[in-house]
Amino acid sequence: MKELFQHAAITDGITVRVAVNFLPEQSRVEAGKWFWVYHIRIENGSDRTVRLVTRHWRITDGHGAVNLVEGEGVVGEQPILQPGQSHDYVSGCPLSTPQGSMEGYYTFECHDGAQVRAAIPFFPLAAPATAG
């Protein structure tokens, strides 16, 4: 299955692409729980080898409440990307509202110790009207 990446951001040669889908089978609308899955592809288009060291997310629900999430790596990994390589992973986001948004950045470390803060593009979380 070919994924359709709906959102992208490029920072210093590092491209972050996002595809997001609402999962009705993981949601419990009657209990006020909505769930989305997102597929991230990180592409190293720079001429440097980089290691993803931390993630920083800003998750906003439909009421405007913000949840900041920070941590090491992504899904338990700190991938190293040579020039031209990419890394994919899938994760999920539950909300207590049928809409919201996510955005943020990854911090990458270069072999020379320099750091790059690569933007994760803003993307909306929106359940279909029939789901809520």
From TrEMBL:
Domain of life, source organism: Bacteria
Pfam families in the cross-refs: DUF525 (PF04379)
* Alphabetical list of SUPFAM superfamilies matching this protein: ApaG-like
Q: ApaG domain: from which residue to which, for each copy?
A: 8-132
Residues annotated as coiled-coil are none
What Gene3D superfamilies does UniProt report for this protein, alphabetically?
ApaG domain (2.60.40.1470)
InterPro entries on file: ApaG-like, ApaG_domain, ApaG_sf
**NCBIfam families, per database record:** PRK05461.1
Protein name (record) = Co2+/Mg2+ efflux protein ApaG
This chain's source organism reads Novosphingobium rhizovicinum
Could you tell me the gene encoding this protein?
A: apaG
